[in-house]
Amino acid sequence: MRELKKCIMAATLVCGTTMGLTSCSSNDDNSVTPEPETEYPNKKITDGNYDKTLAVKCINGTFVGKKAENIISYKGIPFVGQQPVGNLRWKAPVDVTPSNDVYEAYNYSKAPVQAPGDPAVENGMDENCLYLNIWKAEEASAEKKPVIVWIYGGGFEVGGATDPQYDCTNLVKENPEVIIVTINYRVSFLGFLHLSHLSDGKEYQDAANLGLMDQLMALKWVNENIAGFGGDPDNVTIWGESAGGGSCSLLPLVKGSHKYFKRVIAQSGAPTQTRSVEEAIEITNNFMEELGCKTVADLQKLSAEKLAETWAKLYGFYQVLGIRTFPERDGKFLPLNTWEAYANGAAKDIEFLQGCNKDEMNTFLGAIGVDRWNEWAPGRKAEKLAKHTEEERALVESYCSEITGESYEPTVRLLSQYMFIAPQIRLSEEQTKGGGKSYTYYYTVESALPLIKAGHATELSVVFNHPEMNGFTGRTYDATFCKTVRKMWIQFAKTGNPSLTAEQSPTGKAIEWPLYDTGDKQVMVLDEQDIHTAKESELKIVDWERTYFLTNTYFN
């Protein structure tokens, strides 16, 4: 996440967000669902005046891209037949319908509605948001090209494909043999809000997992249309970081999803990034109480802006570092036990490249500062430990007691373990036990900013080839290292194996990346000066006795 989205909006965390809201009233039978802005981001072309060489015929229309040097981009292509506005708010995405119309594909759509603060919303936000973007090199290829679909992070709370960090021009220019797609999906209170327990919630069974359903609909569109852009629908890799990585680890568990992709790249995201039905209901009830609402009909009367203002005050990512929104383990769309599903082989036919950063939670520490961290972190630790036995709590306290240094060190290290590091290693374990393949990395490159170190999302400027976006890392990383990481990612998407021959490697030296196994537990250490393999036991990535079990109670 770009500079942790400008360092959590320069510590708006402490301001509490003062906002006035009109509360709901279930007695106002004359209220109607507000109709958000529904303007299409690109114009329909009706005069036949467009560059036919940049036009691609798809099921739902012909889309005309823009060329810059040798890269053609197609922005703002709808992947649904109706946007989730008006009475379709909190409803599953609607599939496209055939069309012979011709449209510009010049402009991004707006970002999904969310609490304010994210760079993705610099272009605005709207409920009319389910669009995707495509980058391809101009040169033709006799063979269909591998396709990579990016799913953004942001804690399932914020974000959008419109974030400038996710412009893929540089990445495709360097790697013209692939096509890259970025997609929008609904986040926060419009993408993951449990509503079916309400008196009129029977028709909103999908509301708790709409963001993942949006992702699947986008992947369906890619499967059905990407061949027209020169892509191979049978060689699609889904790729994400943080909540995007979590999404990529959850999508393989959704029935029928495997026909849309064959590989996963998951950066700092695992199947722990979910919540139970009970946890989801508690958040919904708190939200509705603050709004003064009792039914879905009450909620429908409110504008998205008012919903966002209230959410920001209660759970906003940039306002209170809430981190409360996750997909729901409902036993229908997602399994009740995602670890068990992996261990039983649910994703054994999907190839994984995934891993974590050495100092994940240091990003959040650096963003909000030591004092604010020391106010926030103990409460989150206590919430987590309350779900564990007295013996387990003693093990965690033993782990923390051995960590020396500054006041924040024990909680930063512990929360890094339970939120990102232990889940990532467990994903490798369970995927391997289930008969699947996992190439696992451990990213150790440190920021120039001492609090952040090798923190969460510090690798994004590397993998997207945006060395200029380094305000959050404090420096530009070694160019050969960065290019090598990207080549391994691309090689994995092409072949299912990230290893590089000496000819392929920017270092001039072959890099052999072994599969993770439950014996040696080998990982690839992404060190700026020395990319190399090592056993987990040498690195001590996770404390198997004192932190690994925290993954059993998932993320909250």
C-alpha termini separation: 20 Å
CATH class of the largest domain: Alpha Beta
CATH topology of the largest domain: Rossmann fold
- Name the average pLDDT: 93
Q: Largest beta sheet: what is the strand line-up?
A: 3-4-6-8-7-9-10-13-14-15-16
| Overall geometric form | globular
Helix content: 25-40%
Secondary structure category: alpha/beta
Rg of Cα set: 23 Å
- Give unreliable regions as ranges: 7-23, 25-38
Count of discrete alpha- or pi-helical segments spanning 4 or more residues: 17
Ordered list of secondary-structure elements with their pairings:
Layout: H1 3-11, E1 55-58, E2 61-64, E3 66-68, E4 71-78, E5 102-104, E6 131-137, E7 145-151, H2 169-174, E8 179-183, H3 188-191, H4 210-225, E9 231-241, H5 243-250, E10 263-267, E11 275-276, H6 277-291, H7 296-300, H8 304-315, H9 317-320, E12 328-329, H10 338-343, E13 351-357, H11 362-368, H12 370-385, H13 390-401, H14 409-433, E14 437-443, H15 460-463, H16 479-495, E15 522-526, E16 532-535, H17 536-539
Parallel strand pairs: 2-5, 7-8, 7-9, 9-10, 10-13, 11-12, 13-14, 14-15
Antiparallel strand pairs: 1-2, 3-4, 4-6, 6-8, 15-16
Helix pairs in contact: 1-11, 6-8, 11-12, 12-14, 13-14
